[in-house]
Amino acid sequence: MNQAVRLLLAASLALPATLLAQTNAYPPSEVTTQNTTLLVDIDHRPATSLDGEWHTLVDPYGNGIYDFHHHVKARGYFMDAKPQPGDEYDFSTSPTLKVPGDWNTQRPNLFYYEGPIWYEKDFEHTSKPNTRTFIHFGAANYRSYVWVNTNKVCEHEGGFTPFDCDITGVVRDGHNFVVVVVDNSRIPDGVPTLQTDWWNYGGLHRDVSVVDVPEQFIDDYDLHLVRTADEASTNRTVEGYVHVEGAAAGTAVTVSIPELHASVQATTDANARAAITLPIKSLTLWSPDAPKLYKVELTAGSGATEDKLEDDMGFRTVEARGTEILLNGKPIFLRGVSIHAEAPYRTGRAYSEKDVDTLLGWCKELGCNFARLAHYPHDQRMTRAADRLGILIWSEIPDYWALQFDNPVVLQKSKQQMREMIRRDRDKASVILWSVANETPNTEARTKYLTAMANYARELDPTRLVTAALLVRTVKSPSGPVKVVDDPLGAALDVIGTNEYIGWYDGPIDSIDKTTWDIHYQKPLIMSEWGGGARFGNHAKPGEKPTPWTEEYQAEIYRHQIPMLNKIPQLRGTTPWVLMDFRSPMRTLPGKEDNFNRKGLISDQGQKKEAFYILQKAYKDKTLGKAE
Ligand code: GCB
């Protein structure tokens, strides 16, 4: 499919968002197109999993929606009808795709596919009185439209954040069916936009489940440790709120940490929010060295409408002071690595416990206490595991490269993704940084947009630090290149991230040694990307100078980068690019790339390259970065 056709399709599929809502008046239904809430801590709620095989229809021409004159059909694929003349589709005999999972790596003929695919699954449900029922999607890339029993229940845009469809009014006792069309067409006004250096994996790539909750239920909470003058103190206060969707003012809320014998009662206000202040004694602070998690119990309401939820939470503080990052009041150096959500060994989008264990296991092996989850929110299993393993996290929304920064609609999309990311992960101790962007062009419109995003992140979560990965400017000087960090966006950030590829895209390896840094912000700095490409097993000829794409050349870049990085006084962390090779359509060099970005320290098949050991040694010996 060429780009023009794809854009046309994308545009036409943007229309149904409103049109579908109208057509779906047959049979008459209450149509909800707005996501009113988003369930958090979903992995601790009882749920009926809809993971497994779903019947699918590949629909590049949009036949599931349009008739031959491009009018919206009254009986689209969402009817899940039994085949009859005019309805020339049959989910029940159509091939299946596994959920969770991207479609590209499940069927060879979907490898490059970008467009809509319809999914269908049957499920049984038994209604309970005084409950609401949701279908929860861990994420679907990129736009999704959902019907249950032929009723349109919701739609969502954004490929990496969760969403819920309220199906209370349409779910019935016994047999039900859900139809979802997921469209991964890249669109100019999308977040991300048309170009990315990663594979545009489409589909229901995270868990899907049906969740019953009481009529009033806990849908959001924020419980964090309050900073004090003595951050080492173990007698502390946990503060925040619990939001109880649908609750009248005065609804009782309890938060307890049984292991600490701590408990507090509060009541909801007119906005269904209960303010929480919970004094605690003998707290073990969460840190990478001691990632202590406590069971936290939350209760809202009583009797038939009571909602109970449990979470595993760590408590710590994080702060930027001058050019330092303080964790629990103590300066910390972030020994990290950047990670894409690419599945080790099998490729495709990472989603399983095994994927997460492998990726974060390698991080640990490297000696990391930190990871940058690039360039979009990863599966919740990742931040859960980071909580357990003691790996600090940078989490990012895909405000990547050249978004339409002058388009207010796009800003709303970024904000939505930021909101959904923060809401899902705000109670994870591991997450310390929200990143608003990566390598964006230095224009007025961009700076305004991303300053708004930084402020929005702070408004949603004042307890964490806001960052972005910036581009740097090079000025020539007689003693060598000077990297100037003066991007005006830096003013809006708590921590500056900078990406550089000296020795790869940017000059020969020995130019690394001559490079100095001129940083215009007295703030902590993380070198959020650096590195170079190598194909595992591709070695330099003995006695010869290593050439690009060999393991030796990549290792040499690391060897030269480490001393240069150590000369940056305000360097507080690094996340070289990248832990593992990942698929990218931008990377076409035969024999070297073959549609993979090869800057991994580890190949997609789990083979460690020479540079892995260089970084590992520097991290383990603490010869990269200042010791805490
Ligand atoms: C970058 C981007 C990252 C790319 C990387 C590369 O600066 O932030 O997404 O994959 O460079 O390999 O060129």
Question: Can you offer a commentary on this structure?
Answer:
- There is one protein chain.
- The protein has 628 residues and is an alpha/beta fold.
- 18% of the residues lie in helices and 29% in strands.
- It contains nine helices and 34 strands.
- Strand 31, helix 8 and strand 32 form a beta-alpha-beta unit.
- Helix 5 runs parallel beside helix 6.
- The longest helix has 18 residues.
- The N and C termini lie far apart (53 Å).
- It binds (2S,3S,4S,5R)-3,4,5-trihydroxy-6-oxo-oxane-2-carboxylic acid.
- The site of (2S,3S,4S,5R)-3,4,5-trihydroxy-6-oxo-oxane-2-carboxylic acid has 9 residues, from loops.
Number of helices: 9
CA-to-CA gap between the ends? 53 Å
Outline? globular
- Compute the number of strand runs: 34
Low-confidence stretches: 1-34
Going across the biggest sheet, name each strand in turn. 21-32-31-29-26-25-24-23-22
Largest sheet features:
9 strands, parallel
Rg on CA atoms, Å: 25 Å
List descriptors.
9 helices, single chain, 628 residues, globular, disordered N terminus, alpha/beta, nine-stranded parallel sheet, 18% helix, six-stranded antiparallel sheet, binds (2S,3S,4S,5R)-3,4,5-trihydroxy-6-oxo-oxane-2-carboxylic acid
